[in-house]
Amino acid sequence: MSKTLLIVHHTPSPHCHEMFESVLAGATDPDIDGVEVIRRPALTVSPAELLEADGYVLGSPANLGYISGALKHAFDQSYYQLLDSTRGRPFGLYLHGNEGTEGAERAVSSITNGLGWAQAAQTVIVAGKPDKSDLEACWELGASVAAQLMG
Fold first, then answer.
1. Cα 13 → chain centroid
2. Where in the numbering of this chain does the NADPH-dependent FMN reductase-like domain appear (predicted)?
């Protein structure tokens, strides 16, 4: 039976998009077997898609010291449906921002702790244009969370 990794992202800038593409490339590596990767913009992901997924990668810019309104909206519309139904599911996080990423990281940590999700990989935080090592870290993030769903 196939597992599903849901990438919920808000990619308003070219830098965020580069990070997203690297996460996606890692998650869809041919060596990872039996994991379907679904990607949804944070403003359009449905509570049902979040409930049906077996794991998650979350991506957001850090805006004014917080996660994007789009990612916050995704959790606001589905939090109570996810509560108790998704405990223990693995997740990873990538953030892009020039300053204030601590507040964004803390916000996601509060939400995911409340849901009982398990952080499956170290958070990737990038300031400015992502360099080769930043994009490799994003690739590893996607691959790590997907690989954990293989079993």
1. 16
2. 49-125
CA distance 124 to 121: 9
Q: Which of 94-133 are b and which e, b meaning 16 or more Cβ less than 10 Å from the residue's Cβ?
A: bbbbeeebeebbebbeebbeebebeebbebbbbeeebeee
| Domains, in order of start, for the chain | 3-148 (3.40.50.360)
pTM of the model: 0.96
Per-residue pLDDT tens digits for 124-148: 999 999 999 999 999 999 999 999 9
Quick one: the chain helix, strand, coil %, rounded to 5?
Answer: 45, 25, 30
Q: How many other β-carbons are positioned within 10 Å of the β-carbon of residue 18?
A: 18
Residues 79, 87: Cα–Cα separation, whole Å: 12
